[in-house]
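Sample A.
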Amino acid sequence: MTRWTGEKLREELNGRGEQLNLKERAGKLKTDIPALFLALKDHETPVLAKVFAGIAVAYALSPIDLIPDFIPVLGVLDDVILLPALIVITVKLIPAHVLERCRAQSEGMWKNGKPKKWVYAIPVVLIWLVIIALLIKVILF
């Protein structure tokens, strides 16, 4: 039976025998956003994967965060935990051949930076409006 050490597991997961540091992982996730955008339009992508891809892409391109960055600690956690978690879940739901094709098509797609579209902020604004409405209802009634 093979004993999995942390280094051995990282090598196995990386596939290249190199260790991925946090910066490299974040960079890889950033390159997956355009691929998820393309997978969202692909007819071979399952419906559940399209739902998660839509949420991940909309959140990544939204100029408004769910938790504003000026809130200490929590404001950064959504960028560090929530978005990468959405991307990882979505990548696992997309068939491998579709994801590889979308990654190949998306290389250099947003090399000048991701587009910020205010349209993608609508779901975040709606979530905040629901939270505010619920708070007002609890406080006043």
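Sample B.
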Amino acid sequence: MNTLKSSLYITVIFLILCGFIFPFALTMVGRVCFPTQANGSLIYQNSTLVGSKLIGQDYSGNLKYFQSRKNSGSGVDPEIFISDANQQAIALSKSTGISLATLNTIIKSNTIKPQFGVLGPERVNVLMANLELQKMYR
């Protein structure tokens, strides 16, 4: 009986520690040390939520904006490869009249470098690039 009581006691202690205290502590550390990332990397424009850097936005059918890459799992990716952005810039320049140099500047300013300088290719965040384009259309 003593063994059963001790086992239940230890189980409840670890349930509280591992199931509540530890996740709560990690959440609080994340919110204090990385507030933007812990809240979803949300993007606001004029106090209005316009999206997240981490979630792809669907711009399909709108030829005035860069297009996200289709993904079978989640719909659209938040980023495209530099080569795709450069190809889209040519079509955007023709359809909008914005110079290719301006579009290349937008691509360059929204390019994400590989993690640690070596992990993965350079990518362009579509939402951030399209927000810059949107400012030009106003």
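B remarks: The chain has two domains: 1-39, 42-137. The chain is about 55% helix and 15% strand.
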